[in-house]
Amino acid sequence: QHYYITNNLSRSDRMKDETSQCILNNFQLENLRRHVYRSTGKTVLDPYMQVFWCWLVERVPLWIAPNMITLVGLVINVGTSLVLVYYSSDGHSTAPPSAFIICGVGLFIYQSLDAIDGKHARRTGTNNPLGELFDHGCDAFSTVFVIIAYGIATDLGPSYWFFYLCCVCNFMFYAAHWQTLVSGVLHFGQFDVTEAQIFLIGAQLWTGLFGANLWNIELYEGFQFKHAMLCLSTICSCASFIFSGNVATILTGGIGKNGATIADTSVLSPGIPILLLTGMFYKILEESDTMFYQENTVLFLLTMGLAFTKVTNSLVVAHMTKSPPTLVVDSIMLGPALMLINQYLSAPVPEQFLLWLVMLFTAYDSIRYCVDICKEICAGLNIPCLTMPEGVKLVSPPQPTKRASLRSRGPSEIESSPKRHSVRSAYSMNEVRKTVRTSSTSRIARIARRPTDSGSGASMSDKN
């Protein structure tokens, strides 16, 4: 792959890539320039939500950039989720009711703004590959905080259920982009992001209005209603992911050479970083003191989620640039590795202090990666990120031509005048036949009137 990339670049470009510290080379930027977003499938609630989203996007001023819409929604979502984290660092629903209601409203605002950013880009003619990458990157960050807020709302507390929830949701989001790297198309199931967000909004509002008593109803010894809902959600999400063909696509749907990914890599290789991170954090959880996870539940899961965000965004970049994804050698692996080494050495550094350092480093590394990628794309494609280019106007739908308007008529309109349409078609065909017959007859007559070639024993008409 490196040989192929470098031999498709000029000598000056190769020297520039070798000396610079850029994440993307010219080959990747060129693939990104030609990238086209492709998706298939429709969820159950999307047709109903589209009515509201189409109404909402018409209220957005033209001077607001689509990426700014996404960023504002992310800031609102993260801010409202951090309110719950402030009141409940151990995962219990001890926050005031207003905090849960604010968190649910914040998630609804993010869902709405995230749904209209692409519509706003198309209506203003400013859609580009950076918008897709920016949207997926914000979704990756939002997933982390939304999951933690849901765990607090359902009073999961410092249990393995909370850890299981974060692992499953982050893996499902990662797997969706995994199959996109394999097939080049993002598949949506019947129960997907829209339905999951509506359920999470409902959970926040329920806890804010009626408290967390519903989630703590014991159905069986040690098995409560919140655990049943978690299992049911997992089954529905996995079933939708499987029956929509995502698993079959990952295993057998590679569109690259010999069934490989679009980057001509193994279809199973993207599973290495996500499984490695999950295994490392599970090992840290198992080997740490009992009170470490109980006192720092949200901080621990936030650190793990931010690490998942980095590898997910790296996978999205690999898909859009058609380049091999980063597997093991990544700076995001440094944090959990240091925590494992610290545990192996009998914790010479206090685990809580080290966890804070790892969380800050992981957050910085994930945000820095996204910012650097956006800067390089803006410079390489010469496009703005959070501002509108000058002279942006509302892109009106193209006016159909006369032929196009005939083709675009509905069946009822065509059936209302079949006689006129058939007479016009028959008249046109008769005119074509007369023209062809006349031109052929005149051509034969001209050939027959030509004189005989003296240099041969046959006439020109015989030769023809």
Task: Considering the chains and any ligands shown, give keywords for the structure.
two-stranded antiparallel ribbon; 2% strand; 464 residues; mainly alpha; disordered C terminus; globular
Write the layout of secondary structure elements.
Elements: H1 2-7, H2 11-19, H3 26-33, E1 39-40, H4 46-57, H5 66-87, H6 97-124, H7 129-153, H8 160-183, E2 186-187, H9 193-210, E3 218-220, E4 223-224, H10 225-243, H11 246-252, H12 271-287, H13 290-295, H14 297-321, H15 334-344, H16 351-381, H17 402-407, H18 411-415, H19 418-448, H20 460-463
Parallel strand pairs: 1-2
Antiparallel strand pairs: 3-4
Report on this model:
The chain is built from 20 helices and 4 strands. The chain has 464 residues and is an all-alpha fold. Strand 3 (218-220) and strand 4 form a beta hairpin. The two termini are 58 Å apart.
Brief account:
The chain has helices at residues 2-7, 11-19, 26-33, 46-57, 66-87, 97-124, 129-153, 160-183, 193-210, 225-243, 246-252, 271-287, 290-295, 297-321, 334-344, 351-381, 402-407, 411-415, 418-448, 460-463, and strands at 39-40, 186-187, 218-220, 223-224. It is mainly α and 464 residues long.
Structural class of the helix and strand makeup? mainly alpha
**Looking across the biggest beta sheet, what order are the strands in?**
1-2
- Average pLDDT score: 81
Distance between the termini: 58 Å
Biggest pleated-sheet summary: 2 strands, parallel
What gyration radius follows from the Cα positions, in whole Å? 30 Å
Number of helices: 20
What's the overall geometry? globular
H/E element sequence: HHHEHHHHHEHEEHHHHHHHHHHH
